[in-house]
Amino acid sequence: MTNDYLELRHLKYFVTVADELHFGRAAERLGISQPPLSQQIHALETRLGAKLFERKGRGIALSGAGSALLPRARAILTQAERAAESVARSQRGELGELHLGLVSSVPFTVVVPRVLARFRERLPEVRLLIHEMATSLQIDALEQGLIDVGVIRPEALPRGIKAMELFKDSLTVAMHASNPLAAAAGPIDLHELADDDFIFYQRHLSVRLYDEIIALCTRAGFSPRILYEVRELPTIIGLISGGFGVAVLPGSIQRMQVENVVYRPLAGTGATTAVWAIYREDAHDPMVQAFLDITQCQVSKTLERR
C-alpha cells in the first residue's frame, strides 16, 4: 500500500461498482463515462496494493480484498455523510448547545415555559442548558459569552446588549395566612403593610425591582422595615411560609403554591414589572436567532389570547 491517502470519491466509486458488479451500469449511476471509472478503480487498487475485483465469466465479482473493504467503505461513506449533515444542521441552528439564563421567578410565568417547550419540539437535537441566575449575573454572563440568551427582570443594560420584552407582570404581595390582611376582601393598599417586616431580594441582584418597591413604599408614606435580604425566590417564599414578614413580588409568582402563603393584589399603584429576553447585539448564532424567533411567536400568541 502506498502512503497516499484514500479519497472519499474512490470509495464511492468502489461501492457503486460493488453494488452493480458492472462497470457500465455503475458509471451510468455515477453520471460519468466508463473509462474514467475504470481508471479510478485501478488507482484505488494501486493505492491499496490489492485487486478489488476479479473477472468472472462475462462479468466481475468482488475479490477477497474487495469483500473485506466493502463494509468498511460503506461505513466510512456513511460517517462522512453524517458529519457533513451535522455541520449543515449546526449552521442552521438545529444541532449543538444553547446556554440560557433564567431568573428564578420566570418558570412560573405562562410565556417562558411555552417558549422552552416549543424550542425543544422544534429543535430536539439542540441541548438546552439552563443556568438559574439573578438578573445582574445574567448580564455579566452574557457579556462574557457564558450564556447565549438571558431571561431577566428589567434592568439597565450595557452597550451591545439588546432586549425583547416578553410581557408585563403586575406586582402582588405574598404574606403568611395568619396576617390579618390575608383574609380581607379585594386588593390591599400598600400603606396597610407599613407595620410589617419585609423580605427583599438583595439589591445588587435586581436593582430596578428593588428600587421600584422602595419607591412604592415611599409614595405610600412609609419606609419598609426590611427584615431579610436574600438571593433566591424559594428562600423568600419559605420565610413567609414560616411566618417571617411579607414580600412584594411579580404577580406570576402566585402560581407557586406553598402552605400558609397567601398572595394579595396591590390596589391603586398600577405598578408592574416585566420579563425580558436579552441577547448580544453582535450574536449571529442561528440557535440564538431560532430561540428569539420562537419567543417572539409565543409572545404574539399570548397577546392574541388576551
TrEMBL record:
PROSITE patterns referenced in this protein's UniProt entry, alphabetically: HTH_LYSR
Residue span(s) of domain HTH lysR-type: 6-63
Pfam families: HTH_1, LysR_substrate
Key words of the record: DNA-binding, Transcription, Transcription regulation
CC per GO annotation: protein-DNA complex
CDD domains referenced in this protein's UniProt entry, alphabetically: PBP2_LTTR_aromatics_like
GO MF annotation list: DNA binding; DNA-binding transcription factor activity
Family the entry assigns: Belongs to the LysR transcriptional regulatory family.
Record-given protein name: LysR family transcriptional regulator
Natural source organism: Dyella choica
Lineage of origin: Bacteria, Pseudomonadati, Pseudomonadota, Gammaproteobacteria, Lysobacterales
